[in-house]
Each structure stands twice: as C-alpha cells, then as structure tokens.
Amino acid sequence: MTLTIGIDIGGTSVRAGVVTDDGTVVDTARAETPRSARALERCLDRVVQELCVEHDVKAVGLAVAGFLDPARRTVAFAPHLPWRDAAVPAEMTERIGLPVVMEHDANSAAWAEFVHGPARQSRVTCVVALGTGIGAGLLIDGSLYRGAFGVAPELGHLQVVPDGRPCECGKRGCWERYCSGTALVETAIDLMGGQGSRGVLLARELADDPGSLTGRKVAAAAEAGDPVAQEAVGELARWLGVGLAMVSDVFDPDLIVLSGGVGASSRLFLDDARDHYAQQLTGGRYRRKARIRATELGERAGMLGAAALARDAVRA
Length: 316
What we know:
Layout: E1 3-9, E2 13-19, E3 25-32, H1 37-52, E4 57-64, E5 67-68, E6 75-77, E7 84-86, H2 88-96, E8 100-104, H3 105-116, E9 124-130, E10 134-140, E11 143-144, H4 181-194, H5 200-208, H6 215-223, H7 227-251, E12 255-259, H8 260-263, H9 270-280, E13 291-294, H10 301-315
Parallel strand pairs: 1-4, 4-8, 9-12, 12-13
Antiparallel strand pairs: 1-2, 2-3, 5-6, 6-7, 9-10, 10-11
Helix pairs in contact: 1-2, 3-10, 4-6, 4-7, 6-7, 7-9
C-alpha cells in the first residue's frame, strides 16, 4: 500500500489528507487559506509535517485553484490565491524532501471521480466544483482534457451577465459571481437590502457579525426555512442551470458531477437546477441530456484526486 497526501488548496481553506490506494482517508488536517504566498507555503509545509508524524508518506499531490502551465510545474495565476508565476511543486519538494505533484483543483476532483467514482463508465464527464468560485474539469474517454496551454476548461469565468458583478479575475459578470459560495452570500445580502426583516435568520447573523456570513451559513438558513436564504439558493439554482446548459452546448457530456463545498448542499437546489438546465439547453426537446448528479465523494474529491495523481507519479 502506498500512502500519499492530497492537499486541496481553495480560496477559503486548505484541506489535506493521508490517502490509501483504495481512496480511504486515514488522517486529515485543515487550515484557513493564508493571504500571502510565504504564509501559504508555510501552511502547506506544516500540514504535511503534521501528517507525516504518524504515516509513512511517499508523495504529495496539490490540487490548486488556479492557472497552471502545461507541465503543471508553475502556478501562473490564481484569482483566489496569492501565487503568481510560482514554481510551487519544485520549491515545496526542496523544503519537505518528498516528491510533490500539482494539478488544477477541478481536474483533481475529476480524476477522483474517474478513479473512485462513476466517471469510469462515462465517455465525457464534466466536473463542476462549486466552492469559493467555480472550477471545472473535463474527462474524455478517461483522460483529462487540459487544452493547448493547460488552462481548460475555465468555465467559472465565462461571462453570463454583461457588465455584471465584478470578478477577481478582472472581468465582470462571470458565472462564478452568480453561482458559488461567494455568490450565494452576495445574492443574499442584495436580497436583504430590499426585503426588510423578512430574512430573520440572516438578519440576525448579519447583526451579530456583518462579515461572518458564508455560503454554508446561507445554505443552512435556507434549510431552516429562512425565506431570503431560500430565494438566494433559488437564484443559485437558476444560474447553475443556465451555465450547465452552456457547458452541454459546447462539450455535450453524458455526465455532469457537482463537487465542492457548495456542491455538498446540492440537495437544496439540484432538482431546480436540472429544470433550468432542461429549459435552457439548445434543442433540449430533441436531444439526450446529461445526467447531473452530486459527487458521492463529498468535499474530499479534490484531495482524493491529488493523492491519486501523486501515487501515479511515484509508481511511474
């Protein structure tokens, strides 16, 4: 058995786990994502050292929310992370003394769906990771599709609203600005501005700590019956359906898997999103539609995929 560490580096949190060959997570560590490159690197070193105390780890895989070069040796740009043209794997290998490989976070999640999930039976699978933003991975006949320059498919930054909400990528109206954890918070706050005290649970949350509202808290309030939170979740479902119809028009997948932190709450919006998808899909009455399902791997998908890629690297 080859133990590897998978680390999912998102805009909000760093999640790491020691993973066995069959995808069992035997130990975990977690931290908030630091804002500076130096602090983030120290954080990664610390979680690896913590997990290596009890486990004979052979390699580390990083799942990174950012643009990687085709060889996956450099983080060129990451909208929600501090790295710019950073040779992350080589520098980390030098610091910790273990082989380190890197992959886009959504590609890592997609690979986990292939190794441990339903994508092995699919010809074309699109994994859409709904978290702080939107990441996406595309599997064609069991191979990751990365594009000519290593950045495909960057679906979260497709423009869905001309001159819409500003995005950290520098554009406006990106899909992730209307369909992500960050978007869920912004939509809820926008709705609160015009709804008086109708959103009781959210109003209480904002009154206690105006900066504390998160996508998870909005989802929890929706599940508890808060009407504004439910309306915000309904808006997320609408934009999810719109975006997935665009994805199907371009790639024609037979399977779409939703992963990520917001994807974990998909029971609140998945049925509505499917309806919006069917309404928006070009020629939807006359063509087969993709199966749209939530990941069975939960928020571990990126971590599991990164660990599997690290295992493949040391066995090559």
